[in-house]
Amino acid sequence: MTNRTDRPAKAFVWSDESEPHKKRTREIITKYPEIRELIGRNPYTFLVILLCVGVQLGLAFWLRDAPWWLLLPAAYGLGAFACHTLFVCIHECAHNLIFKSRPLNTLSGILANLPLVFPSSVSFQKYHLQHHSHQGVEALDADMPFRWEARLIDNSVAGKALWLLFYPFFQLLRPLRLTREISIFDKWTVVNWIVQFSFMALVIWQMGWMATLYLVASFFFSIGLHPLGARWIQEHYLTHGTQETKSYYGILNPVNLNVGYHNEHHDFPSIPWNKLPRIKAIAAPFYDGLGYHTSYTGLLFRFLFDKNLSVYSRMARSKRSRSAQASKPVHADQKTS
What we know:
Structural class: mainly alpha
Shape: globular
Radius of gyration: 20 Å
């Protein structure tokens, strides 16, 4: 289902059009108003958080005296999946999709953050909502790579592998360009940091460094050089022509709380994960013609070895993008940087 386009490898693809989801949402709601009934919350997601936190702490305790040759495969094959599910739960918290109370969702995100080593849930909550509102706007969307980041990685196999391996560090730096719009620190951020660093100090004290290494490795594998890391490519990298957002309809969706239904989520961010497949079932004519993925492993290898795919394979737009009358996407090197 791949539709390649000839585009420069050294620049983002530029669009003068608005992001595509708001328009499609209006069209779907007009044709299928029953989708409004899916809007709501799923408090049972909190039980998923408790389960995955328990699994990770249990495995860390069990592996506290294990050799590295057992610890690393366990982190890759088990811990990465538990951590990835916790990331999805934090994502649900960011959209206020577990409890009605915003503070309860924030606290749930802080709890889900515990086995993920580094404090990030509160920051993600703030920056992710900007991603939905300003998809592809470099100054406002923390999901967009830096231009220097794309130049640094280029499109070599080794460069892209290292980029995935250290993806958390790039994610950490991107919000710095949003400081004019969002304050980096607030009281909830401070709470997140205090709780997280206190928890990790307790882990080191009570379980030791091998248990800590297990948690660190699980964290990096869950969003890095792992089939699960291909999710970042699946969501908004241009693997199907100039289609900005792709869904994943594969066997890992049940484990990943349907996070693969990414077009559906962007169209209806107020619908919880357990009801996302019903959006596609109800509004099938709107989704059946879109490009999608069915294998994270296949996508991971394609990203690494396909010279037509790189960190530059993203759609960028201006803050003052034009609407439906705008021109078709043109290349970034035709714009003034």
